[in-house]
Amino acid sequence: MLSKSEKSYIRTSLLSEPPLRADGRSLLDFRGVAVELGVTALANGSARVRIGGDAGSESGGGGVCGTEVLVAVKVEVEDVSGSVDGGKGRMACNVSCSPAAYPSLTMLQLDDFQSDLTSILDTTLGCSSLCPTNLSIIPRKKAWLLHVDALVLADDGNVYDALFLAAAAALHDTRIPRTRPIEYRPNNARSQASADASDDPMDGASGLDTHAMPKATDFELMDYWDEGEPLVCPNGMSWPICVTLNLVPPLFYLDATTVEEDATLTRLLLLYSFSTNSSNTRLQGMRLLGHGEVEANLIKPLIREGEKHAKHLNQSLFAKLKSELTKRIPQIVPSTKRNK
Amino acid sequence: MGSRVEILNDGGYRSDGRRQFELRDIAIDLSRHGQADGSAMYTQGLTEVLVTVFGPREAKLRSQTIHNRANINVEVNIAAFSTGERRKRSRGDKRILELGAAIKSTFEPVIQTHLYPRSQIDIFVQVLQQDGGLLSAAINATTLALITAGIPLFDYVCAVSSGVHSTHAMLDLTTLEENDVPHLTVAVMPRTGKITLVTLETRLHSDRFEEVFRIACEAGKVLHEEMRNAIKARTSALARAMGEGHPAGAPSNREGDEDFEMGDD
């Protein structure tokens, strides 16, 4: 916790002309952002994002350490026969914080903060408009359930932006295993189905009806050279990107460190998703954090400003992901040739 | 659980292609992490553990202070995605408490707690991935983190898991092997040859115990060499950086510009 005078010192220097920040950045500068994909081998997709800090210094006693978030996506088969929304699969998000990231918080406070982070990630990503369209395995019977697990390893401010960047990167990295539906038809020699899939007498009866729609009862995993297909976000939108506007009336600044966050009364989280050709932007969510209040007529220009920065962030993330994913292809291609 | 994989085939190879006494790849990263006083990322095969150490510092709860020595507080957190099947374990989970208690009792005789009366040393263990040998990886990472935090220890603690398949002892088991084979975890203090932890959760014939135990102790010495090299590399990098007048943590690969001595250092 900062003292009153420290807080006012930080606030006055932010409001001075030109604005001053402890690390010499201008108000709208981000710290360096590092993104790494595929960091956990046991997950279907994962990413580690680090904002600030001197990543890669092996000598270890660096002065600043930055914010670090790890997100892993795991898929699980879920029975959706009883669900009301048609059973298209869903996403479940969970955030946990390492106690090392918040050494000053007690365990109870940490639990509260974790559920805060979980709720914002879950309400944003779990929204049905963002549910990937290729999660269904057998329509109205089985679907993939995406578990998005985030882990905050270190917090040096701006944890929300890091969280959503890491989640977007991990979802880009995720591959859904390819499946093939199989069915059981007792009187049909042409069927390539395996008989052990279902021994249900009810299915045997429906198998006699040749006019019925073929009904898949189970599925098998296809053996293929890659791990599966990427997630398809509906309507060609990107995964949501968060921009935190730290409000020090009359201005705002981006990417606050822990100390600056402490000195700032109000923070506005804005969550955007963009279509791939960036012609279309959607506001996915909005939160006002902190004690202060904001004048209502300020919100509109703030949203417009936020969009600009989110777009920039999204473009850089996309470029980085593209280069990461193309880096992988040359590794995969030679090995498949050898197999054939 | 019966397995369809051969634990040890006729050629003397294990399911992942290792020999009986072969350890998996070890990677040690001692770079700074968050606001911690010391931290270590320890990777052994697919098992990955991050340990951060805070302290010695004032205890958060007054009741936890001990008047003549430091209190050691161990918190274990297992990531939900760390295993093959996703599983969320809460903080009160029996398995987690047990792991924490094992780490605490291992380090209580090793840390020179009498030097810091009325204070607390926090050890946060974050399991990122697990594929067998979780306790041994956590103990090794904790040793390294304590050393980087500058907390005085009597000795290194090097832990390794070992098991017996029929009559053959094996070292550093994976999850697959742990499910099938009786195994124990041994933590050695290599300099004095003392043992601070032996755990055995499954049945093992008493005739076999000695051999497995002896091999685990020897493997501990090999690990000690590995851990000492990592610590030495970090310390010499720090010393070099201080000598050059750079802030610690600045890039240390500056062999080329040694002739530019800064005037005041």
Automatic annotation (TrEMBL), chain A:
One of its GO terms (cellular component) is nuclear exosome (RNase complex). Gene3D superfamilies: GHMP Kinase, N-terminal domain. Keywords: Cytoplasm, Exosome, Ribonucleoprotein, Ribosomal protein. Residues 181-209 are annotated as: Disordered. GO terms for biological process: exonucleolytic trimming to generate mature 3'-end of 5.8S rRNA from tricistronic rRNA transcript (SSU-rRNA, 5.8S rRNA, LSU-rRNA); nuclear mRNA surveillance; nuclear polyadenylation-dependent rRNA catabolic process; rRNA catabolic process; TRAMP-dependent tRNA surveillance pathway; U1 snRNA 3'-end processing; U4 snRNA 3'-end processing; U5 snRNA 3'-end processing. GO terms for molecular function: mRNA 3'-UTR AU-rich region binding. Pfam families: RNase_PH. Residues 30-177 form the Exoribonuclease phosphorolytic domain. It comes from the Eukaryota. It is found in: Cytoplasm; Nucleus, Nucleolus. SUPFAM superfamilies: Ribonuclease PH domain 2-like, Ribosomal protein S5 domain 2-like. Belongs to the RNase PH family. This is Ribosomal RNA-processing protein 42. It comes from Schizopora paradoxa. The lineage of its organism: Eukaryota, Fungi, Dikarya, Basidiomycota, Agaricomycotina.
Automatic annotation (TrEMBL), chain B:
Its main location: cytoplasm. Residues 240-265 are annotated as: Disordered. Keywords: Cytoplasm, Exosome. The keyword Ligase does not apply. Pfam families: RNase_PH, RNase_PH_C. GO terms for molecular function: RNA binding. One of its GO terms (biological process) is poly(A)-dependent snoRNA 3'-end processing. Residues 256-265 have a biased composition (Acidic residues). Residues 22-152, 155-219 form the Exoribonuclease phosphorolytic domain. It is found in: Cytoplasm; Nucleus, Nucleolus. It comes from the Eukaryota. One of its GO terms (cellular component) is cytoplasmic exosome (RNase complex). Belongs to the RNase PH family. Component of the RNA exosome complex. Specifically part of the catalytically inactive RNA exosome core complex (Exo-9) which may associate with the catalytic subunits RRP6 and DIS3 in cytoplasmic- and nuclear-specific RNA exosome complex forms. Exo-9 is formed by a hexameric base ring of RNase PH domain-containing subunits and a cap ring consisting of CSL4, RRP4 and RRP40. This is Ribosomal RNA-processing protein 41. It comes from Schizopora paradoxa. The lineage of its organism: Eukaryota, Fungi, Dikarya, Basidiomycota, Agaricomycotina.
